Amino acid sequence: MFQQIPLIDFGPFLNGTDEDRQRVSSQIGDACRNVGFFYISNHGVSSTLTERVYEQAKRYFSQSLEEKMKLYIGSCPCGNNRGYTPMFEEKLSLKGDLKEGFDLAMELPADDKDRIERGALLYGPNFWPDNLEGFRECIYDEYYLTMISLGHKVLEAFALSLNLPLNYFKSMSQKPMVTMRLLHYPPQPVVLDEDQLGCGAHTDYECFTLLSQSNQSGLQVRNNKGEWIHATPIENTFVVNIGDMMQRWTNDQFKSTVHRVINVSGTTRYSIPVFFWT
């Protein structure tokens, strides 16, 4: 019956003693069991880097639809779910979501061994624009790889909160399937149709999500009473939420909580979710 989303200082876990790490992990475990969402502050990711990623997102989405459709996700050469998703194409809302996105994941060659031998179709190369100098370097080389490192630390905290060894999940993440999205939501000041939201009500599929939000509110989380609780942006934090896979792995100890996005800010909203499968 939560009415707010916990804010947890992650700094002591990254830089503190064993006792500090255990204390922070316990706080995270409580949030995962009772809410399924929490914020982390002092996470070690430069705010300057995050701001640069938002600038790159604005730069990308400000292009013409014709230009963006050159990287249409359905035409990705390897069919591995990378590239541009136009407005209304995704349908978590019945009539299509009021958002557009750009998807990327771990940069791997088209002849990656796991792709060839195991049929791991989501492994492979990304689908990059060739007209935006510095886009790939900022988005992937700097931000994406930094977020993978942070995600590994969050997995360590999950392990300790479950009374497991610190590196319990490490063997599962040697070649992590981590998807990152740049998302753009136009303003939706009044909801006239519940079947057409920025992003309809859903749970995430994977282990967990690390989400950076721009200053515009939009994310809402549903509590056990069916009330929608606003996940108001907090400067220099990430929102962390549990996905269906982690709920399954923990035998329903951790909760994969329903959430949605309605951009009622009156202005454009951007967000950068990073989805961790392992």
Walk me through the structure.
Helix content is 29%, strand content 21%. It starts with 6 loop residues before the first strand and ends with a strand. Strand 8 (219-222) and strand 9 form a beta hairpin. The strands form 2 sheets. The chain has an 8-stranded mixed β-sheet. The protein has a 4-stranded antiparallel β-sheet with strand order 6-11-8-9, with no helix packed on it. The chain is globular. The chain has one domain (7-276): B-lactam Antibiotic, Isopenicillin N Synthase, Chain (Jelly Rolls, Sandwich), CATH 2.60.120.330. Helix 2 packs across helix 6 (135-161) and helix 3 (47-61) packs across helix 6. The mean pLDDT is 91. The chain is built from 7 helices and 12 strands. It has helices at 11-15, 18-34, 47-61, 65-68, 113-118, 135-161, 244-249, and strands spanning 7-9, 37-41, 83-85, 100-104, 178-185, 199-202, 208-213, 219-222, 228-230, 238-242, 259-261, 269-276. It is an alpha+beta fold.
